[in-house]
């Protein structure tokens, strides 16, 4: 006799895989159609996934997207040794070329978690050390990741004012979704994320996402420098160098380059 839990587990994993491969949240009816499952089964499984945080329901859009628990599973993989082994030599080479400290961070809920930190000789101490977590909206790495996500997914991550960590010394003052949206729009237009003094006064960072084979941001590479040493005219050339490193890492993890 077939264990009834086995097909339920199979259906659940297929739903998560479908949502993970989608560019944005999906309607339950579309999920049922694509997976050729009864709608009643899909609604039941979505409710269970939502209860455990693996799925978020967007009531205004009548769609479902990945929840924070699913994002944290992805982040758990990215924190493992393969990413460090693949990324560390690339980040070290970037430090040698730029002469500035560089790091790699992965999404962890509404935060970014730093997994690689390569310091330039004589650089100022940074708070972005390995295993440190910082709010996504404050950092260049986090903004690079958020700007590469579908807007509906960003909205699901920051549904209300309580989702934002408030910092009185943050010059950008990103304490609500409308301000975050403006920063991310500017990031997409510019082609790279820029943070100036939001984490540490006097220090700026430029970040670019690392994309997987679906174009989904799984990490970000950023460079941090003393603001008085770098003219804003150099930001774009620095970003191109950071992007080439991010694209090399994307290729190494079977991802694809930005176009």
TrEMBL record:
All copies of domain HTH iclR-type, residue ranges: 6-68
GO molecular function: DNA binding; DNA-binding transcription factor activity
Domain of life: Bacteria
Protein name: Glycerol operon regulatory protein
Function: May be an activator protein for the gylABX operon.
Keywords: DNA-binding, Glycerol metabolism, Transcription, Transcription regulation
GO biological process, one term: glycerol metabolic process
IclR-ED domain sequence ranges: 69-255
Record InterPro entries: ArsR-like_HTH (IPR011991), GAF-like_dom_sf (IPR029016), HTH_MetabolicPath_Reg (IPR050707), Tscrpt_reg_IclR_C (IPR014757), Tscrpt_reg_IclR_N (IPR005471), WH-like_DNA-bd_sf (IPR036388), WH_DNA-bd_sf (IPR036390)
Keyword DNA-binding recorded: yes
Organism: Leucobacter exalbidus
PANTHER family according to UniProt: HELIX-TURN-HELIX TRANSCRIPTIONAL REGULATOR, ICLR FAMILY, HTH-TYPE TRANSCRIPTIONAL REPRESSOR ALLR
Coiled coil stretches, renumbered: none
Pfam families named among the record's database cross-references: HTH_IclR (PF09339), IclR_C (PF01614)
């Amino acid at each position: 006799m077939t264990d009834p839990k086995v097909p339920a587990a199979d259906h659940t994993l297929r739903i998560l895989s479908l949502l993970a491969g989608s560019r944005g949240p999906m309607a339950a009816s579309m999920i049922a159609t694509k997976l050729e499952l009864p709608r009643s089964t899909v609604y039941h499984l979505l409710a269970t996934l939502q209860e455990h945080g693996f799925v978020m329901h967007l009531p205004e859009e009548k769609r479902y997207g990945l929840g924070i628990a699913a994002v944290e599973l992805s982040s758990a993989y990215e924190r493992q040794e393969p990413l460090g082994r693949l990324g560390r030599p690339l980040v070290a080479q970037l430090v040698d070329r730029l002469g500035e400290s560089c790091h790699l961070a992965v999404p962890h809920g509404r935060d970014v978690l730093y997994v690689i930190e390569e310091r330039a000789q004589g650089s100022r101490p940074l708070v972005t050390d390995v295993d440190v977590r910082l709010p996504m909206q404050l950092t260049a790495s986090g903004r690079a990741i958020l700007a590469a996500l579908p807007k509906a997914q960003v909205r699901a991550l920051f549904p209300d004012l309580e989702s934002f960590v408030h910092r009185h010394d943050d010059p950008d003052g990103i304490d609500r979704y409308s301000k975050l949206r403006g920063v991310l729009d500017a990031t997409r237009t510019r082609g790279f994320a820029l943070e100036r003094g939001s984490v540490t006064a006097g220090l700026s960072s430029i970040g670019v996402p690392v994309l997987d084979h679906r174009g989904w941001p799984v990490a970000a590479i950023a460079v941090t420098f003393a603001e008085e040493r770098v003219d804003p005219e150099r930001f774009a050339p620095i970003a191109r160098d950071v992007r080439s490193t991010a694209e090399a890492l994307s290729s190494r993890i079977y991802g694809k380059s930005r176009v």
